[in-house]
Specification:
Elements (H helix, E strand, L loop, with lengths): L1 H40 L12 H27 L3 H22 L4
């Protein structure tokens, strides 16, 4: 009976050793992968998060309003004028005039 228990205990210990070795190999593989990933990512600049706060929200709103106005203008020109030179000209002028329009609409005093 004691020999049988010893064999069972020995088998359990072997299985535990195999499981422990597999876990150690997985942990080592994950560590190597993380080191490679860190080395690769360290070559690139870190991304900054989106600015938060009242000023940033106001700026996003203002930029969105400017883009919406220019988009509406371009859609109207697209619908009203069938010729491509006019559409292209209005698109280019709106792109060039966007900063000026934004400054005129949302000027700080």
């Amino acid at each position: 009976m004691s020999k049988e228990r010893a064999h069972r205990r020995e088998a359990r210990e072997r299985e535990a050793a195999v499981v422990t070795a597999a876990r150690a190999a997985d942990a080592e593989r994950r560590e190597r992968q993380q080191r490679r990933r860190r080395a690769f990512r360290s070559r690139f600049p870190r991304r900054r998060g989106r600015p938060t706060g009242v000023v940033a929200a106001r700026r996003r709103r203002e930029v969105g309003a400017t883009i919406a106005m220019l988009l509406v203008l371009n859609v109207l020109v697209w619908v009203i004028f069938p010729d491509w030179p006019m559409r292209t000209m209005v698109l280019l002028v709106s792109l060039l005039a966007a900063p000026v329009l934004h400054t005129m609409l949302f000027r700080r005093r």
